[in-house]
Amino acid sequence: MQYFKSYPDFRHLWLPVILTFVVALTVVGCNPTELKTKAAQVPELVFTAPSGPSTFNLTQNQSAYSVFGYLYDGLITEDGLTGDLEPALAESWEISPDKKRIVFTLKEGLKWSDGEPLTIDDVLFSYQDIYFNEKIPTDIRDTLRIGTNRALPTVKKLDRRRVEFTVPEPFAPFLRFVGELSILPAHALQESVHTNDANGNPKFISTWGTDTDPKKIIGNGSYVMESYTPSQRVIFRRNPYYWRKDAQGNPQPYIERVVSEIIESTDNQMISFRSGQLDDLDVKSEMFPLLKREEKRGKFKIYNGGPESTTTFVTFNLNKARNSKNQPLVNPIKSRWFNTLAFRQAVAYAIDRETMKINIFRGVGELQNSPIYLNNPYYLSPAKGLKVYNYNPEKAKQLLLEAGFKYNSKGQLLDGEGNQVRFTMLVKSEEAARVAMTVQVQQDLAKIGIKADLQALAFNTVLVNLKNRNWECYVGKFGGGGVEPHNGSNIWFTTGGSHQFNQGPQPGEPPIKGWVVSDWEKEIDRLFIEGARELDETKRKVIYDKFQQIAQQQLPFIHLVNPLSFEAVRDRVQGVKFSTLAGSAFWNLYELKVNN
Question: Would you say the pTM of this structure is higher than 0.90?
Answer without folding.
Answer: no
